[in-house]
Design brief:
19 strands; Aconitase, domain 3; 3 domains; 17% strand; 5-stranded parallel sheet; alpha/beta
């Protein structure tokens, strides 16, 4: 029988078959951990006298609580003692259990969903978990990748498997030619706006069509990263030559690379395979997108008008965001700009932001920070001189980390401030109590920084600085 990409990878990892009474037991190829969701899991292991089952299948980094600034004496300005303690505990726990860890001295340290692919630890056909919602990022390589809770982190550390019900499958098909200025971030925001934040609940998504096959790996990771914002269990893109070229030569790449690529190529969905649901969109219909409400499904083209609220929930969202139905978002005063996160902190994102900032100055009332996703991206950007462009514009060039995406390391907005952010969630207070978040692409965020108001970046491209 013809199979989907998801079915092929799922079937390879079944330890115990699912029944009506019990979920399937699924083997996990790669377990990514960081300092926030792992301490409790290691404590449970210690209390029960258990060891990490497969330290060689576990990879750790520090990212959520890590400061993106360094004090003049070289110390790290942790926002709280607890934040520093979290990092200390992760480093101690992984040393005790022999887990490869990318801490302060590592040239690979960075946001967990940026670092894993850079090392080549993320590979097609894998099952990948992490105590973080946006583990779906790794599905860009043709892996089943999803976030797990703290208790499940302990389960995987102990037995390298997880209990899980098999989700249904949904194809998201986007074909055609994207308009100039439309980025992968715009594509995924348009998809979420179409199907809703609950549209993917109970499904594994597969992104199909020439729009995705023509995307770079950076773009594919942006798309899969936000699958969770549509409620999906995971998002996937079939591996192809773009995938193979990206992984070749990386630290964890297989020794017999040609044989691995041949196997990975076989994972693509078979002709005639059935999906439980199919959603189609025309590439030509997608425009640069921004959010206007308090979840990613409240997104619209940047040149459109804010939809008029139709219920109390929507009314409350517009009131919180201080926007008006029937009015434009363009022209709204911006207080802060954040370019970074596991959604948009890769080298292509740094280049895109710098292309807008080049020769321009950040508006005097705007505080803009650019946070690379890893030490590797920071080094590459600096080798290209992107940091010079960013600093010359008046934006801050920071150390790698999650930063304002989750605002738990001290990088946050003040109550009432409007933030244009390249991250993945615009929930009320996500970037600081009372802060208002507008999600956008790096180009749109950079345009807002220099203009001081929400601006269609297309109006700046090619225009005089």
């Amino acid at each position: 029988m013809p199979k989907t990409l998801f079915d092929k990878v799922w079937d390879r990892h079944i330890v115990v078959t699912e029944t009506d009474a019990h979920p399937a037991t699924l083997y996990i190829d790669l377990h990514l951990i960081h300092e926030v969701t792992s301490p409790q899991a290691f404590t449970v292991l210690r209390e029960r006298g258990l060891k990490v089952r497969r330290p060689d299948r576990t990879l750790a980094t520090i990212d959520h609580s890590t400061p993106t600034l360094i004090n003049t004496d070289g110390s790290r300005p942790f926002v709280t003692k607890q934040a520093g303690k979290q990092v200390e505990m992760l480093l101690a726990n992984t040393a005790e259990h022999g887990i490869e860890t990318h801490g302060w001295e590592s040239a690979y340290r960075g946001v967990v969903h940026v670092m894993g692919p850079e090392l080549g630890a993320t590979q097609p056909g894998m099952t990948i978990v992490c105590g973080d919602s946006h583990t779906s990022t790794h599905g860009a390589f043709g892996a089943i990748a999803f976030g797990i809770g703290t208790t499940q982190v302990g389960h995987v550390l102990a037995n390298q498997s997880i209990l899980m019900r098999k989700p249904k499958t949904m194809a998201i098909e986007v074909n055609g030619e994207l308009q100039a200025g439309v980025t992968p971030k715009d594509v995924i925001l348009a998809i979420i706006a179409k199907i809703g934040v609950g549209g993917g609940t109970g499904y594994a998504l597969e992104y199909r069509g020439n729009v995705f096959s023509e995307m770079s790996m950076d773009g594919r990771m942006t798309v899969c990263n936000m699958s969770i914002e549509a409620g999906a269990r995971c998002g996937m893109i079939a591996p192809d030559e773009t995938t193979f070229n990206y992984l070749k030569g990386r630290k964890f790449a297989p020794e017999n690379y040609d044989a691995a690529c041949a196997d990975w190529a076989s994972l693509a969905t078979d002709d005639g395979a059935d999906f439980d649901k199919v959603v189609t969109m025309k590439a030509e219909d997608i425009r640069p997108m921004i959010t206007y409400g308090t979840h990613p499904g409240m997104a619209m083209p940047i040149d459109a008008m804010v939809p008029v609220a139709t219920d109390d929930t929507e009314t409350a969202a517009l009131e919180y965001m201080q926007v008006t139905g029937g009015a434009p978002m363009t022209g709204l005063r911006v207080d802060r700009v954040f370019i970074g996160s596991c959604t948009n902190a890769r080298i292509e994102d740094m280049r895109a932001a710098a292309s807008i900032l080049s020769g321009r100055k950040v508006a005097s009332h705007v505080k803009a920070i650019v946070v690379p996703g890893s030490e590797q991206i920071k080094a590459e950007a600096e080798a290209e001189g992107l940091h010079d462009v960013i600093i010359a514009s008046g934006a801050e060039w920071r150390e790698p980390g999650c930063s304002m995406c989750i605002a738990m390391n001290g990088d946050k907005a003040a109550p009432g401030e409007l933030v244009v952010s390249t991250s993945n969630r615009n929930f009320a207070g996500r970037q600081g109590p009372g802060a208002r978040t507008v999600l956008a692409s790096p180009e749109t965020a950079a345009a807002a920084a220099v203009m001081g108001v929400i601006t269609d970046a297309r109006t700046l491209k090619g225009a005089a600085a």
